[in-house]
Write a structure and sequence with these properties.
Archaeosine Trna-guanine Transglycosylase, Chain: A, domain 4, 3 domains, binds guanine, single chain, TIM Barrel, alpha/beta
């Protein structure tokens, strides 16, 4: 939301009306663009509720503050003779003097608050269409949380039954299809599925105002998760009546795109100020706990003395500024991958919200975890909830490791003879702090598998540069605070076997823990006790151990990033050659002189070259039982463009195989199975075929036909 008063509305292009496009995502959180005839609306955003009769802040000022859409009530306009005539005559945008997107509600909220409304279900939709709104709302049945299950089932069924007539009445006007079902997750899911089956443009989650008013946030989060699971992913999700900034981060993290609320005005009338962490009463303030442009130059005492309307206007303006700023903060957090840090921060501001957040951690949807890319540039800031954040959960599942089958001299070592040494008490890079100790140990006892303790779990020493494991940002104490104060050997073993369970299937009986702050001699003595005499003067050179680890690190990374079995990747270990960086780290990975992968030194990840993609596809075809990379099957119309390196756009995809994950590599093939390109998926499997606008796969390299026939 730029705060630029000279901004003009940007209508959508022909053919884009009603399309929703995701520009960036992190898990379910998404930065989107909703294309309407009036404006391309950037999401997540909030639509301030505007009463056509009373406006403390004018809609034109809201536009200038950066609010690109607002919501007003068509029933109020319909009921007022003068308003109705003017709206029908000049259109709703002129009536409100607002250049942005206008959404209207249908009077259902009035029905909930005041009882009955006089207007007919179809008539109210026709009216919204006739006054030129961008997004109209059908007449749903407000499901209150105190209704019986039967009543709520009825609300869901009647809302769905009214859908077809409402859609017909709306014509080309975009229409909201609300989800009802009270606090019953199964009803929300059913309602979402039924409404998704019709041609609505936006899905508001309705009936939540009384749930929020009573701070029943755990139930709110549960019903959002249930609704999202039942909704088709390519339409924006709106949270009807949710406007407290405190709730934005968690809702945005769960994929809510639109909010609307009169909170800014209602709280202002009640002499209350919104802040991102809660609401404060003007009466209790000596100083401002949270500043905004609206408050500059005024003390709380001075504002208290203002005449009533001026005071409401000032507080409403402040509340809007706070709302806009918190939404900007959420959008920025999606961009920089910190939305879950913001969720965690806000969770500590309110006990009910904390309860809801903890519930979510325990019930994190698999689809959300799998589409949260674990390996990225940049550190992970240590926090209390870090282990429950989707990126860290995903990283733990992802690192499913198999040790190299041979030692640095090429000898096979049976699994049962191996000894795991867990090194801890030090931050990375471990190649610097533990590299020479490890080389020495492995030369003396080749059966040793060195493993590093990190605050988010163990990693094999050879993967010591892999993000996020290698990039946990926190105080030194983090590396030892979690370790127990060891008393006896039995306790150590129990503890270490618990730690190693995540990496090994418990087939390695012998495990040693070594604190890097201790003398190296201590570890050597213990290894001698456990395994026996070292090989005389150590066999092989130190360099052999280092290059053994480097070589198998690359094999491991190929498995992690391409889904090829360890059996396949370990089998090529000795055929790989490397081009090294100036700091002696592997840069390019070659197989039989062909450059297949490049190692990213920033996050320890691997990037594929086009030859790498071809090799993987060959491996997948010759070892069909393994997973490999997910495949996106492209429509033939787009084939020449994608072969040429252009991105895969939604709407040109006819199928998929394997489990696509947002932010991870995939291969693009045509319907007869020719490899066309490789790239990074921008979405998960649910989104791939549902969206019809935006980039589905960012292509990193295309397979040209000339190259193809050369082979
Ligand atoms: N405003 C707040 N909640 C609702 C709802 O459930 N339905 C409609 N139509 N409007 C709302």
């Amino acid at each position: 939301m730029a705060n630029d008063s000279k901004r003009e509305a940007e209508p959508c292009r022909d053919g884009d009306h009603g399309k929703f496009e995701v520009k960036t995502s992190d898990g379910w959180a998404r930065l989107g663009l909703f294309h309407t005839n009036t404006h391309k609306l950037k999401t997540p955003t909030l639509l301030p509720v505007v009463n056509p009769n009373i406006q403390a802040i004018l809609p034109s000022e809201m536009w200038n503050m950066g609010f690109e859409a607002l919501i007003t009530n068509s029933y109020i306009i319909w009921k007022g003779e003068e308003l109705k005539a003017k709206a029908l005559d000049e259109g709703v945008h002129k009536l409100l003097n607002y250049p942005g997107v206008v959404m209207t509600d249908s009077g259902v909220f009035q029905q909930y608050v005041y009882g009955d409304v006089e207007v007919g279900e179809v008539e109210v939709v026709e009216f919204q269409r006739d006054i030129g709104v961008d997004i109209a709302t059908m007449m749903d049945v407000f499901g209150r949380p105190d209704m019986s299950r039967e009543e709520l089932e009825d609300a869901v069924a009647v809302t769905a039954a009214r859908g077809p007539a409402a859609l017909e009445a709306a014509g080309k006007t975009l229409l909201n299809g609300p989800i009802q079902g009270g606090t019953h997750a199964d009803l929300r899911f059913d309602s979402a599925q039924m409404m998704s089956g019709m041609d609505f443009s936006v899905h508001p989650i309705g009936g939540i105002v009384p749930i929020m008013e009573n701070q029943r946030y755990r139930e709110l989060i549960e019903l959002i998760v249930a609704s999202k699971a039942g909704l088709t992913p390519e339409r924006p999700v709106h949270l009807f009546g949710c406007g407290h900034p405190l709730l934005f981060p968690i809702c945005v993290a769960l994929g809510v795109d639109l909010f609307d609320s009169a909170a800014y005005a209602l709280f202002a009338k009640d002499d209350r100020l919104l802040t991102p962490t809660g609401t404060v009463k003007l009466a209790e303030l000596i100083e401002w706990p949270h500043l905004s442009p609206a408050l500059f130059g005024n003390t709380p005492e001075e504002v208290r003395k203002l005449e009533k309307d001026a005071k409401i206007e000032l507080l409403a303006r402040h509340n809007l500024h706070v709302t806009a700023a918190e939404l900007a903060r959420c959008r920025e957090a999606i961009r920089n991958g910190t939305i879950w840090n913001l969720v965690e921060e806000r969770s500590h501001c309110n006990p009910e919200l904390r309860e809801a957040t903890l519930w979510l951690y325990d019930n994190m949807p698999d689809d959300l975890i799998l589409n949260t890319h674990p390996c990225r540039q940049g550190g992970v800031r240590w926090s209390t909830d870090m282990m429950s954040h989707p990126r860290i959960i995903h990283a733990g599942h992802w690192l499913n490791w198999t040790p190299p089958p041979v030692d640095h001299l090429g000898n096979n070592i049976p699994l049962e003879q191996r000894v795991v040494v867990v090194l801890h008490r030090n931050t990375g890079p471990w190649r610097e702090s533990a590299g020479s100790l490890i080389s020495k140990i492995v030369r003396d006892w080749p059966q040793v598998i060195p493993v590093i303790y990190t605050p988010i779990g163990l990693i094999p020493f050879q993967l010591e540069d892999l993000n996020p494991f290698a990039h946990i940002l926190g105080p030194d104490g983090l590396w030892d605070a979690i370790l127990p104060d060891f008393i006896d050997e039995a306790e150590i073993e129990e503890y270490v076997s618990m730690l190693t369970e995540q990496l090994f299937d418990n087939y390695m009986e012998k495990i040693l823990l070594h604190n890097l702050d201790f003398e190296d001699e201590l570890l050597l003595e213990r290894l001698e006790e456990l395994i026996g005499e070292p090989k005389p003067a150590g066999e092989g050179r130190r360099g052999d151990v280092k290059s053994h680890h480097q070589r198998f690190a690359i094999c491991d990374k190929i498995s992690l990033f391409t889904g090829l079995d360890y059996e396949v990747t370990h089998s090529i270990a000795n055929d790989l050659t490397f081009i090294m960086s100036r700091t002696r780290r592997v840069n390019n990975v070659l197989l039989n002189d062909v450059h297949l992968f490049s190692q990213r030194l920033t996050d320890g990840g691997l990037s594929l070259t086009t030859d790498g993609a071809k090799w993987i596809y060959e491996m997948m075809n010759s070892h069909s039982e393994q997973e490999g990379l997910p495949l996106v099957v492209l429509d033939s119309d787009a084939e020449p463009f994608v072969r040429d390196g252009r991105n895969v756009m939604h709407g040109f995809i006819v199928g998929q195989k394997g489990l696509l994950k947002s932010g991870m590599p995939c291969l693009i093939i045509n319907e007869v199975g020719d490899l066309l390109a490789h790239g990074i998926s921008q979405c998960g499997p649910r989104e791939l075929l549902s969206f019809c606008k935006g980039i589905a796969v960012k292509v990193r390299g295309g397979v040209t036909l000339i190259e193809d026939t050369d082979q």
